[in-house]
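Example S7 (structure tokens).
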């Protein structure tokens, strides 16, 4: 079994070993926190939780989280900052990331194409709040 090890200096106490399992647990906690924030329309907070994951992944996962972060940022800009143009620009950037994801792919139970459409509609109608499935 290949285990990635991240070494963190801990002062006089040596180094802390972080395994892949530790990263998976942290990713899952950040994913759930982000979903809860997103579903409560706390888009900036969701963005922050998912960014912690995005910084550590690669490949399709990198594109998924990058797109997801930008979708949250689009809703935040359009709604909280009252900047619809900024929201549309972030939405377009999100689509560029999510275009790398296969059409029938699910990440954490999320249908990526459905989410793109739901956020597009929510950018046009502020009464709509896209909801992500809360995987446990």
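Recovered sequence:
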């Amino acid at each position: 079994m290949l285990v990635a090890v991240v070494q963190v200096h801990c002062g006089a106490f040596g180094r802390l070993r972080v395994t892949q399992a530790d990263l998976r647990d942290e990713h899952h906690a950040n994913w759930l926190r982000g979903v809860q924030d997103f579903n409560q329309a706390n888009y900036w907070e969701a963005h922050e939780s998912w960014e912690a994951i995005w910084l550590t992944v690669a490949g399709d996962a990198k594109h998924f989280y990058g797109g997801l972060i930008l979708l949250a940022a689009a809703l935040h800009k359009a709604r909280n900052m009252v900047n619809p143009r900024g929201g549309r620009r972030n939405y377009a950037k999100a689509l560029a990331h999510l275009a790398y994801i296969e059409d029938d792919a699910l990440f954490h139970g999320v249908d990526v194409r459905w989410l793109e459409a739901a956020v597009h509609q929510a950018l046009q109608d502020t009464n709509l709040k896209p909801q992500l499935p809360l995987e446990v």
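Notes on this example. The CA atoms of residues 75 and 123 lie 7 Å apart.
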